[in-house]
Amino acid sequence: MVCRVVVLLLTILVLPVAAAQAAGRTDGSAPAPASIVRLVTHVPARTLNAVGAGSVLPESSFGVFKLRSHLVRDGKPEVLSLSLAWCPHCAANSWAMAVALSRFGTLTGLRVLNTGTYYCKLTADPCSLKPYPCYPFTHGLSFFHTGFHSAYLRLREVVIQDVNGKDLQKPSHADVRAVNPFDPGADQAPALDVGGAFAFLNAGYDPGALAHKSWSQIAGSLADPHNAVARHVDGLANLFTAAMCRATKGRPAAVCRSKGVLDAGARLRTAPGPPPPSPEGAA
């Protein structure tokens, strides 16, 4: 089960954070070792083709929406990601994001992140007989201040809070407008808008799949199409790639016409439009 990351601190999206103040902060991540970067950014095409749609959660748990807008920066479709450093669901998606983006360009300055236990504190309820799993110490990747060089896409990563729940980066008014159609109020994470063509909300697989696994173990599993973690990560990467291909109008062709991307992309054909606004939002 994927837990909706409805942040109790929703006002973080409207509280100002001075640019100079935010510039001196980090999200709690560290530079990724070169060995991990290479494994994540060079998953063999044959593996991605073999995995196809992989083991991605159904629509009831993982929101996939077709949008009818255009999110563009510098003449290229923009991939907009809103995340929280302490969010295990964001960590789960981060591996697939890195794999997918690497098929369109080069990531520089990729980082590794341990989500810690802040999410567990938020979800703790001593009165609950069946508490939500909180996935402590989930190992993921961070795109905080990561560079992305691509002839096809632009990347904008907004890390709203660090691993300790401290305000870090503030989404712009344009960011909030971009995610409002599928996440009114921008109050959930992870949220991903791919060029205004498709949107993804929450984790594509249960973060528990990464439990007790190091960054090296996760990265090292991605080339094996029979590995359970690879089927989660690579399958979600193929789905993200398919959405990016729609935004880039099928470029690069070798990637967008690959079997794994086409297999996973079949889900996009039946993706619904954005959910209707809630009564509160409509008011």
Largest sheet: 6 strands, mixed
Overall number of strands: 11
* Count of alpha and pi helical runs: 11
Give the CA-CA distance, first to last residue. 31 Å
* Beta-strand percentage range: 15-25%
Percent of residues in helical segments?
Answer: 25-40%
Which term fits the overall shape?
globular
Look at the helices and sheets and give the structural class: alpha+beta
Low-confidence stretches: 1-23
Number of self-contained structural domains: 1
Query: What is the rounded Rg?
Result: 17 Å
Mean pLDDT: 89
Order of helices and strands: HEHHEEEHEEHEEEHEEHHHHH
Strand and helix map with partners:
Elements: H1 19-23, E1 30-31, H2 34-41, H3 45-51, E2 63-66, E3 72-73, E4 76-83, H4 88-101, E5 105-108, E6 111-114, H5 118-123, E7 139-142, E8 147-150, E9 154-159, H6 173-179, E10 191-194, E11 198-201, H7 215-221, H8 228-247, H9 253-256, H10 259-265, H11 279-282
Parallel strand pairs: 4-9
Antiparallel strand pairs: 1-6, 2-11, 3-4, 4-10, 5-8, 6-7, 10-11
Helix pairs in contact: 2-7, 3-10, 4-8, 8-10
Q: How is this structure best described in words?
A:
- The protein is α+β, with helices and mostly antiparallel strands and 283 residues long.
- The chain has one domain.
- Helix content is 31%, strand content 16%.
- The protein contains eleven helices and eleven strands.
- Strands 2, 3, 4, 9, 10 and 11 form a six-stranded mixed β-sheet that branches. The protein has a three-stranded antiparallel β-sheet with strand order 1-6-7. The chain has a two-stranded antiparallel sheet with strand order 5-8.
- A hairpin with a 3-residue loop joins strand 10 (191-194) and strand 11.
- Helix 4 (88-101) packs across helix 8 and helix 8 (228-247) crosses helix 10 (259-265).
- The longest helix is centred in the C-terminal third of the chain and has 20 residues, at 228-247.
- It is globular.
